[in-house]
Amino acid sequence: MEPDDPTQELVRVETTCDSREAARALSRNAVEARLAACGQVEGPIASTYWWKDEVEVSEEWRVVLKTTRARCAELVGHLRESHTYEVPEIVVLAISGGDSAYLDWIRTETRR
């Protein structure tokens, strides 16, 4: 899904980092800027991937951010600018449902 897909109002934006500190910083900065209502740091996780013609295995931390479609493009831009990876994982997933009070909270906390 593209960050500006008009069919989805609320989204989860996920990325990974090479340290807990970097993940917490990305999460905190996004929330402080009101680009996300909340951020969660999970990990460590074991990642296996191709990088520069070699299979790499590393320990990473996943950052999950909840936001609105209206703020998504700005959040993705913020992650690209702030990330330490040359090609960071940035995945946008639609939130198709959930507790209405929680979903309203995401909308409220990400207002400009």
Describe the structure.
It is built from three helices and four strands. It has one domain: 2-Layer Sandwich (Alpha-Beta Plaits). The chain is elongated and about 45 Å long. The longest helix is centred in the last third of the chain and has 14 residues. It has 112 residues and is of the alpha+beta class. GO terms for molecular function: copper ion binding. This is Divalent-cation tolerance protein CutA. It comes from Antribacter soli.
Question: Nutshell version of this structure?
Answer:
The chain has helices at 20-32, 69-82, 100-109; strands spanning 10-17, 38-51, 54-68, 91-94.
The helix fraction, in percent, is 25-40%
Rg computed from alpha carbons, rounded to a whole number of angstroms: 14 Å
Question: What topology, given as strand order, has the largest sheet?
Answer: 2-3-1-4
- Given the C-alpha coordinates, what overall shape results? elongated
Please report the distance between the alpha carbons of the first and last residues.
23 Å
Provide the structure class: alpha+beta
- The fraction of residues assigned to DSSP E strands is 35-45%
CATH architecture: 2-Layer Sandwich
The low-confidence parts are 1-7
Number of E-state strands: 4
Summarize this structure as a short list of keywords or feature phrases.
single chain, 112 residues, alpha+beta, Alpha-Beta Plaits, four-stranded antiparallel sheet
